[in-house]
Amino acid sequence: MNSKPKIWSVHKLLGTNLIIPDYQRPYKWTDRNITELILDTQKSIEESRKYANFKYRIGTVILHRNEKKEYEIVDGQQRILSFLLLKLYLDSEFSCNLLQTNFLNKITQKNLHDNYTTIREWFSSIDDEEKALFNDALKNILEVVVITVDKIDEAFQLFDSQNTRGRALYPHDLLKAYHLREIHDKYEMQNAVVKWESKDPKAIRELFDLYLFPIWNWAKCRKCGNFTSADIDIYKGIEEKYGYTYARRANKAMPYFLLTEPFISGGDFFEMVDHYMQMLHNIKEEIATNPAFHDIEQILTNGKDADSAEELDKSFKSSSVGLNHARNLFFCALLCYYDRFHNFDVMAVKKLFTWAMMIRIDMLHLGFDTINRYAIGLGDNDKYSNAKPVISMIAYARRHTEISSMRLDMREEDKAASENWDNLYKQLRQLNGYN
Questions:
Q1: CA 168, CA 44: separation in Å to the nearest integer?
Q2: Of 23, 211, 237, 326, which has the maximum CB count within 10 A?
Q3: What is the rounded CA–CA span in Å between residue 221 and residue 389?
Q4: With contact defined as beta carbons under 8 Å apart, do 353 and 396 qualify?
């Protein structure tokens, strides 16, 4: 390494002799990224009014200094070009080496044009004094860590270690950092950190991956993919200071959460995670220990008694992937139901269990794509006995009896689609009063 990392302002970085090498990918940031960048800058300006010498560090940039003493951008192109667009709008007289770049890629051209339009529209209702504050933030508040190397192979090695070798942060890790920044009381922040760190990271990840994110989508009849960093806006909550009507409504609702509704950002995020981890545990405990659900417990555990939520979870590990998809669908439906109605009506629980298990009965092979379609009511009735968007039905039901009285059908045949599940089908029929 030929130089130690340095801290530069965004203004200084843009004014450096930067070039974009041919191997760089196209510029792909969209209006969503630009809006987030502007809002982050706005927030940094607000924080600088509270704290003397406040700085907001936006990340790391890796540069390769070539033989011509030019600085090739190895990592950070997306942010650099986005800040350049912002700088050009705020200061029309600004000039730098990057402006000599001939952007030939059509994707890059379109995104540069669209993002500059987004910036222009965003600032159209802001006065000159406010624009001057943004321009000043690029000089005196926003900073980057700049790492410069003289050998290109060192630059690529460093890029690899920054982006591939280290474990990427999980989406819930990013949410933790976001909501901690929203807490301004140090004791509340300490309490939130203690509460978070006391939990198993794997359990937090599973809560979002297997329950919260699927329920959020299925309740709106949307297919659900993997929960990634691109989806974290769903759980950023509402900043109360904006005074939106729905923000005031959400604030008055605390400490009551609802899976399908937003919450106030900051400390309530940590309360929300704690709330649903406890609720999920209590639901599984109820299924494992309540005699009224003994038949369901026996089906879930393949005939083995489970005396606790933990034992119930352990029994899933040895089961087939398809059956576990159906089991998870059941607990998503039950979590959504209990979250809304706060009861364990025996008939409602049986209906939810039957609905979730029947997709296992109906299919020779069961993968998550089928679960996705089934959960939102998409599907050929010739394949699915009960193609109903049950989780969406729960989310919009006024009374729990709308779920307990829901009609479910058995198969026209007396057997499952695969003989492997004939016994399961027999148990479901008995559970629902069929001979």
A1: 25
A2: 326
A3: 7
A4: no
